[in-house]
């Protein structure tokens, strides 16, 4: 049997880990991939409870029986776990199997510093996955007989998820992070009143589902939606001060639309969001505008029709899942009918622009 070994703190596990391991598995035709979770890595400061990290890995790999979690290093009674000892253990456990140990391409240049690095060649075949900036001609490649493999470079990192710069991890892991108040969650929830957060989380969950059904990025949709009302409970004077300082384009702003522009500012400042599509979705989720991108349309619709709104939106939800743009148009029409029923004249230029562009309407009478 061919087994692939990979060690990491998995704090948390993410799509980059999973895609890299799947690519490596296919490259060497491994029958089994062992994810070896490290309890106290020497090179990182880990504050997340080990049980939370274990649970997140289990959730992430539950769908693939060839991926198995190993608790060897967690259960081993050692202050420091050296990789050579882990490799020796698995070599003794599977003496007749062909073992590979996967490292990142950036670790190749440092591999001679690993404890008893020269022993690796006799125990396992080292395999290295490319990383941005890693050297492909370093002498360690030959010295330790490290096998090169090619594959796409993944920009996601565990750090980016812990900081809410990204949510590129499976949905069960995202849900676990929120349910257990991990990483960014306490900071994020501090911006919301409890009832508001219920609406925001429901919007994010629906946006994820709509994006997934429409082959858009569900993680980006969730991220945009979980931040879309971040300035809603902010003091108006403070919000206008932020807008005056950082957004002189969208002036003047009616009070009800203020939070969408300030929300985009806070997303950049507080959570380092740089993705244009995510920022657009936050910036125009209330008013809309002409020529909205896919994420902006999805979040606009999800915000209006998420289940906690208190009315039967099932038909609109189904339409958005079937085809997000057609569903968005239906939501827009419903919003226009609501404005007409309430006899609200459309005065906001962005709302006018949105209705005119998508529905051919210039007035809300």
Can you describe what's shown?
The protein is of the alpha/beta class and 365 residues long. The protein folds into two domains: 147 residues, HUPs (Rossmann fold), CATH 3.40.50; 169 residues, Hypothetical protein af1432 (Orthogonal Bundle), CATH 1.10.3210. It is 51% helix and 8% strand. The protein is built from 18 helices and six strands. The chain has a six-stranded parallel sheet with strand order 3-2-1-4-5-6, sandwiched between helices. The radius of gyration is 25 Å and the shape is elongated. The model has no long low-confidence stretch (mean pLDDT 92).
Quick rundown:
This protein has 365 residues and is an alpha/beta fold.
Determine the CATH topology of the largest domain. Answer: Hypothetical protein af1432
Give the tally of structural domains.
2
Tell me the series of helices and strands, N- to C-terminal. Answer: EHEHEHHEHEHEHHHHHHHHHHHH
Class inferred from helices and paired strands: alpha/beta
Strand content: 5-15%
Radius of gyration: 25 Å
CATH architecture of the largest domain: Orthogonal Bundle
């Amino acid at each position: 049997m061919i087994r692939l070994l990979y060690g990491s703190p998995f704090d948390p596990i993410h799509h980059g880990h999973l895609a890299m391991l799947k690519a490596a598995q296919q490259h060497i035709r491994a029958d089994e991939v062992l994810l070896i979770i490290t309890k106290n890595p020497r090179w990182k400061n880990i504050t997340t409870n080990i049980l939370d990290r274990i649970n997140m890995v289990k959730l992430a790999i539950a769908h693939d029986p060839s991926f198995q979690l190993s608790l060897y290093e967690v259960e081993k009674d050692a202050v420091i776990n050296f990789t050579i000892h882990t490799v020796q253990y698995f070599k003794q456990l599977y003496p007749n199997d062909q073992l590979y140990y996967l490292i990142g391409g950036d670790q190749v240049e440092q591999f001679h510093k690993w404890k008893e690095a020269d022993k690796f060649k006799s125990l396992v075949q080292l395999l290295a996955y490319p990383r941005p900036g890693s050297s492909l001609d370093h002498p360690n490649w030959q010295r330790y007989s490290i096998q090169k493999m090619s594959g796409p470079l993944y920009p996601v990192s565990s750090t980016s998820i812990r900081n809410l710069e990204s949510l590129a991890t499976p949905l069960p892991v995202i849900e676990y992070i929120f349910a257990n108040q991990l990483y960014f969650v306490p900071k994020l929830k501090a911006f919301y009143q409890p009832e508001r957060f219920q609406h925001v989380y429901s919007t994010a969950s629906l946006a994820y589902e709509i994006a997934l059904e429409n082959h858009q990025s569900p993680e980006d949709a969730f991220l945009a939606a979980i931040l879309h009302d971040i300035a809603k409970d902010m003091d108006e004077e403070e919000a206008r001060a932020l807008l005056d300082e950082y957004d002189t384009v969208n002036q003047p702003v009616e009070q009800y639309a203020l939070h969408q522009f300030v929300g985009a500012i806070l997303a950049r400042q507080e959570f380092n969001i740089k993705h244009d599509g995510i920022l657009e979705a936050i910036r125009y989720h209330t008013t809309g505008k002409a020529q909205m991108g896919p994420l902006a349309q999805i979040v606009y619709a999800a915000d209006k029709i998420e289940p906690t709104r208190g009315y039967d939106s099932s038909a609109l939800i189904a339409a958005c899942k079937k085809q997000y743009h057609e569903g968005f148009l239906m939501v827009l029409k419903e919003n226009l009918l609501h404005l007409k029923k309430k006899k609200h004249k459309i005065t906001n230029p962005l709302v006018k622009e949105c209705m005119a562009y998508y529905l051919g309407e210039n007035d809300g009478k």
